């Protein structure tokens, strides 16, 4: 980075702080601070949903999986695509709740302040870990952009993470949700720039590096990209790591995401709760998330360009996570136009646009569902906003500590994503079924906490022999697929990068292990053997298994199909399990299902029945065995959820009073009148909006396939 790049970053920070100072004067009470007075229209709701849903780790993640798996790697972020149409329905729920936090919803629906407090504690842990992944990603990927790994003798992360946290604290703590939404609008524009900026410059770099700039334009870069990279990298469902994202895995990821996303704490705000009306809530949430899906398309195309342009870089042979940072440095740096600084600002925007909303929503939960509920029930709005600002500060500081002290970013992210299992079933069932009650919800939460988070740690501690018991250290079979094809220029470059990386590693065995096996030594056009190894995954341990002493592979079968041969082997020898016990997979073992021959994707897919169905099953059974919630509370709650929101607060209040006085007001619109199921018949706007959203999902896929196919031979 040069001085102009640092100027761009500095201006960006100054603008964010100025917005926070401006918004501070507009905060008069809790509703202003936590929900911006519920006065946001389509534009701000759209960019709030877009910004809060887009993390700094995601373009980096797509860069890595695109580098290793080609176009099919886009599913590492695009797995949310088919969840988006459901947002057209759920946005209405969040607006009709008329609450400031999802903790308030649990208090109302289940008559339990303790449940609201439990949800607040969940939110604190969730966001500390989730935000820490973004802070860690920024620190890691700023290094190749800035060209340094230390500042004032300190590792870059020790300076950059607190600095970023400080900026978020200043404008978010001061201005509340209004500041967050206005900054999200600006940061959303930056994220869109992040998604497309490298594409035209990257295509032109391909022409300059491998083409003829005097006769070719930047669109010819697509053709050069296809000439330099093997065709199997351009398949959306197979690619070089065939089977990593097959259809059944995509479906499973979509269902898992759908079940858990609705109880992520920020959805009460960005999901529609802060909008003027139900229409603004729906359009903002759905359009904002489709904007993100379109940006994901840009990230995938950028990864393919990087494959063609940067295959010879030894840094990427060591760590594909650096694809995005190195691409920005190599493509934008030579222009000296401040674009490297702009790219860094864009990455920061992707993190900060999520962090500000998360911080405010979490502070609302602590303020309302812990402080006001148990510490000071008579707190004034002024006192509550003061507590909210202090707790927002604590949450960001906590996330910074986790980011600095935890080395495993993926572990941080995985833990955060799995936590919503605790509250997902109570939310979905409580939304539609009157029989669900407080006692059953507590039973479900305790069961989920024990089964998915506590016992997987405790059981191996109580029975350490399990880690070395051959019954529990089994792995899936190793599948070695050998493909013969013509070598491309990228294949030649990859081998050169491997050689240089191994030279740099020298006696560093850990680094040499990270670099991996030698790619084929070749010239362009040679017939090379590409070896893809899959399987050999631990069935029962999250951290895999490691050999104790010598281990070996036993051949099971070998098959040849044309230019492809497939060798199946199983690991034998003494092994030791690492990490946590996959308790849910013990169920498959005891009912006699053999998992040895399943792929990694199928193994992950099998998590769906236990993680989705078990909590729902426990809640339903427990609800039948425990006392109902009082009928008057349920009548009032469901009457409110059926009453359409009026943008005018006074009119909306009067409409609610009418519904409260006549809980059977909407009986003629129920799908199952006279039962405990409180679902309404869908309106025309529900059906049409959902259908259009599904069509847009397929349009996004079509756009991605079309862009990736530009310049392909034939």
UniProtKB/TrEMBL annotation:
Recorded superkingdom: Bacteria
Chief site of localization: membrane
One of the record's GO molecular function terms: symporter activity
Example of a GO cellular component annotation carried by this entry: plasma membrane
InterPro entries membership: Na/Glc_symporter_sf, Na/solute_symporter, Sodium:Solute_Symporter
CDD domains: SLC5sbd
A Pfam cross-reference name: SSF
Sorted UniProt keywords: Cell membrane, Ion transport, Membrane, Sodium, Sodium transport, Symport, Transmembrane, Transmembrane helix, Transport
Example GO biological process: sodium ion transport
Bilayer disposition of the protein: Multi-pass membrane protein
Catalytic activity: L-proline(in) + Na(+)(in) = L-proline(out) + Na(+)(out)
Subcellular location: Cell membrane
Record-linked Gene3D superfamilies: Sodium/glucose cotransporter
Family assignment from sequence similarity: Belongs to the sodium:solute symporter (SSF) (TC 2.A.21) family.
Protein known as: Sodium/glucose cotransporter
Native source species: Stieleria maiorica
